[in-house]
What we know:
Blueprint: E1 2-8, H1 13-24, E2 29-33, H2 36-47, E3 55-59, H3 65-77, E4 80-87, H4 102-126, E5 133-138, H5 151-170, E6 176-183, H6 206-218, E7 227-230
Amino acid sequence: MTKISIVSGGSSGLGFYLASKLLRQGKNVIILGRNPEKLSKSAERLQTGLAQNRLIPFACNIGYEKDVRELVKYIQSEDMIVEYLFNNAGTGLFAKAETSTALMVDNIFEANLKGMILLTSEILRITPVNEELTIVNIMSTSSLYGRAEETVYCAAKWGARGFTEALRTELKGTKRNIIAVYPGGMKTDFWKVPGQSRDISGFMEPLEVAEKILNAILVSPKLMVTDITINRKK
């Protein structure tokens, strides 16, 4: 059976660089994204110069249970076992609390919390109990602090943190490793919000953040980190 690593939100930003680094570490990788065209273009860039490792772009909205189950069917049909799951997908919302609507809440919770839960649950279900599985939940420092004009986003991220902590407790003593990652602001499309302008010139490079994460996770089979907070130097 083939060992595979899954990266949600793998077509751009931090997810793209995580996939790139994993491939160069000798891992087979599935990148997930909602936009098939964007996913395909990203896969072409990632595959350049790599002949031995397997890279699979798979269009999937992890907030849709049907999509996640189609992914799982594919994994099973290809005799794959998930070694690493990087729950990286997410989207932002910057707005005053008084402007919140049901649609806004649904969209943010689907991208940042519901999708993480659905994808994690399905991968747990299909992974044999005797196989080691590392689940890396990449959240945000907004999972740690309340921030003005990020009320709905913080609520979703705090939910993701609660899910991560509870999951770690539930799976203690098994071959399931749960790692929480809390990165600060990065130079990605996350900050491209219509009608808003933010200076992100001092933010972190996603490539460097990806390196920090993977250096901590892959460095030794005998050691494991549980929580990683990554911030830029002041």
